[in-house]
Design brief:
CATH topology of the largest domain: Isopropylmalate Dehydrogenase
Number of domains: 2
Order of helices and strands: EHEHEEHEHHEEHHEHEHHEHEEH
Largest sheet: 12 strands, mixed
Number of helices: 12
Shape: globular
Radius of gyration: 20 Å
CATH architecture of the largest domain: 3-Layer(aba) Sandwich
CATH superfamily of the largest domain: Isopropylmalate Dehydrogenase
Number of strands: 12
Strand order of the largest sheet: 3-4-2-1-5-12-11-6-7-10-8-9
Helix content: 25-40%
Distance between the termini: 15 Å
Structural class: alpha/beta
Amino acid sequence: MNTLPRIALTTGEPAGIGPDLTLAIAQRPWPCELVIFGDPTLLRSRAEQLGQSIKLRAYQSAVHTPHQPGWITYANTELAVPTIGGKLNVRNANYVLTMLDRACDGCLQGEFSAMVTAPVQKSVINDAGVPFTGHTEYLAERCGGELPVMMLTCDTLRVALVTTHLPLSQVSQAITAPILHRTLTILHQDLRHRFAIKNPRIMVLGLNPHAGESGHLGREEIDLITPVIKSLQTEGMSLIGPLPADTAFTPTNLQAVDAVLAMYHDQGLPVLKYAGFGNAVNVTLGLPIIRTSVDHGTALELAGTGKANASSLSAALELAITMSNNKAS
């Protein structure tokens, strides 16, 4: 019986650094079967451009092939048109989505233990006429409309979000008691089952400055956030808050918790990215599959230059392997 997790890795926007990062990853040993989703011609040409030696073999689902440094096992996905590093082409937008669809469906069907995603260019997908706000929302819909919870993690710091890619003007209306209740439940459950934390301790941030200042700067903390926290505390969850975001991320506070729940994207993620940009991992919780990703974008200007740093994708792959093993144990 094969015991290594089989991980799907999508190479992302072909004009970006995704192929470069994938090639760097492939040179290292990994305790998994690594299946790369992408166009082999692109991978071969980018390797030549970077002066790298790589061997390619076609993926066969019935054959278990542990990863070997210097090899790429590829699940063929063909570009619509050839690509040049740094130059977007809207005709290749569907290529990016096809990779995501195949990898996600393979995870749902048990073919893959997890999927890891290199960065995509949201603008080119939208320019192709496909509404796309991000991997998180797209994969959630592909998985049947589950509520996704975005969490970024770096070392022991974990920051999850109630809302993700929304204009700030829409955040307050988007945070409802059912959404907050479900988000905290998902975060608690996945910290237990996928991160092997037996009794997760979660810090919940307020929405408003000074967590509302006793209602003088907003009532969301009084009317919504605190009642949800108290309700879940009666169910046995270890929750702290709501705390003001400007003083929550102190070493003393963070030592007392396993994760922080922020109300919106730019409330929590700037702190995490300051602490570990380039080494952080984006994890989608609440889905029936395991999905991890990088903490950065496509860096079009670095594609094909040899200057791209693969540390975040390496961390994402390491976490996907760990989570897959936790799930299997």
